[in-house]
Amino acid sequence: VSGSLMSIYSADFGNVDVKGNIQFAVDYVEQLNELHIFICQCKDLAVADVKRQRSDPYVKTYLLPEKYKLGKRKTSVKKKTFNPVYNEILRYKIEKDLLKNQTLNISVWHNDTFGRNSFLGEVELDLGTWDWNDRSNKQISWFPLKPRVEGNVNYLWVEYNGEMTLSLTACVGRCQGTWKKILSTGEVHIWVKECHNLPLLRGNRLNSFIKCTILPDTSRKSRQKTRTVAKTTNPVFNHTMVYDGFRPEDLKEACIELTVWDHNKLANHFLGGLRIGLGTGKSYGTTVDWMDSTSDETALWEKMMNSPNTWIEDTLPLRML
């Protein structure tokens, strides 16, 4: 998954000069009430990884402006090529009349397993003016890839992964008193309430669950998860996780990592997550990459620390970790 230090901005556009072309076709299948985008291939793509002189490209699509409602669609990743061949169909279940207000955004990205994905170019089609009866519009055609547009009101390069509503509380004693008044350890309670507008990665089905770990502890004891909520992009979990043994000073060094997953028989797919802590970059004096909380995530953690025995609630945007 791609990393990020910029909240919901999961992409690193870097200094890649956009070049090359993409070949695709668009059609609306009346019998299925589906928009089909046939991604054929790309050619002469830019070099994303200069050191290794390679690109591992994939194609992603959105329907704008409210892309989160229908989610993104992605092709497979083709490794070590500037001329990837996909021959894949990306589908959206949508009424034809609704397409009059939609813009189709097709973008090409380099997939960096351990870093941030790089933008390689995009194409936009205004579906409001698209002639679905023109046979030539159904033909596979080449389109030049274009660089991103600075200040575009649609924020096309923002990776929206949905939101999570949760509450936190630091309990001490019998949830009475304050951290300063006692010397014993306490508990942190994490009440995962629900998620909103989770991205669809495969068709129109989504079976999601949430994993939780209190870093730096990655042992089995630290791992908890919710049940799986099926067939919805707005799952309600209402699941509380409890972690004990916290001293007041531990709260400055720990970080709650919550990750949302799409459950699949073959493999679970990562959708987005949160890291709630102070975001100092260090834990117990050691520099760690996971102490990278955003300002919103840090604000929630600080409110919890400053208000023991009180539930602190917020809705935060999920991001790539």
From TrEMBL:
It is found in: Cell membrane. GO terms for cellular component: exocytic vesicle; plasma membrane. GO terms for molecular function: neurexin family protein binding. Gene3D superfamilies: C2 domain. GO terms for biological process: exocytosis. Residues 18-143, 160-291 form the C2 domain. Pfam families: C2. InterPro entries: C2_dom (IPR000008), C2_domain_sf (IPR035892), Synaptotagmin (IPR001565), SYTL1-5_C2B (IPR043567). Keywords: Cell membrane, Exocytosis, Membrane, Repeat. Its main location: membrane. This is Synaptotagmin-like protein 2.
